[in-house]
Amino acid sequence: MDEAIARSEICRIGHLLWGRGHIGAAEGNVSWRLDTTTLLCTPAGRNKGELTPAEIVLIDRQGRSLGEGRPSSEVQLHLECYDGRPDCLAVVHAHPPYATAFALAGEPIPENLLPEAAVFLGRIAMVPFAMPGTTAMRDAIRPYLTKHKTFLLQNHGAVTLGKTLEDAFARMDTLERVAAAIYRANKIGEPLSLPASAMTELREKYFNPDL
Predict the structure, then answer these.
(1) What is the pLDDT of residues 38-66, one digit of tens each?
(2) Catalytic residues
(3) Domain assignment of residue 211, yes or no
(4) Which residues of 159-172 are buried (b: 16+ CB within 10 A; e: fewer)?
(5) Dist. CA 147–CA 200, nearest whole Å
(6) The total number of structural domains that make up the chain
(7) How far apart are CA 111 and CA 118, in angstroms?
(8) If you ran DSSP here, which 8-state letter would residue 62 be given?
(9) How much is the pTM?
(10) 129 is in which domain, residue-wise?
(11) Is the residue at 134 inside a domain?
């Protein structure tokens, strides 16, 4: 991937995350693995709705800046995702309100209510709390990486992986829509599960941890 294009794409996704309400202020972070040794990451302390390509930080696989700027404080979380998932080329971390509400309550998002959850999100992991911006986040998410691509971070937010940045963003967007629909359904009554036969078919076709 051309670095200039990647920088612009990270800005575009940052603007979308902010515009959709998945992040606010300087929250959230986005990264893209350029090759086996370098990544691009959003900078620390910046509103993702206002980023410019020049602000995106080039880092190595240890999280050290290779040029101007300071990477997000959550860079260790991103690095662990890449180390644990060689097929992962992009990571999005955000605080979408409905998905984060499930994370705050420690409630998993059911996989048997909406087909989209099975088709695109896969089984959603609930990652135990670890202090944001620390290497403890690496330890917390590591056990879940090989079998999941969508994660709720308890008392924190959500993380999604992708083969492309668009893929990771779309997964985050879908996660929030699914969480919002389930939350609202619970306010109306008891949500109806998909038929067992449908879940069997979905599992056979789509329950795949690969990206």
Answers:
(1) 999 999 999 999 999 999 999 999 999 99
(2) 74
(3) no
(4) bbbbeebebbbbbb
(5) 18
(6) 1
(7) 6
(8) T
(9) 0.95
(10) 3-206
(11) yes
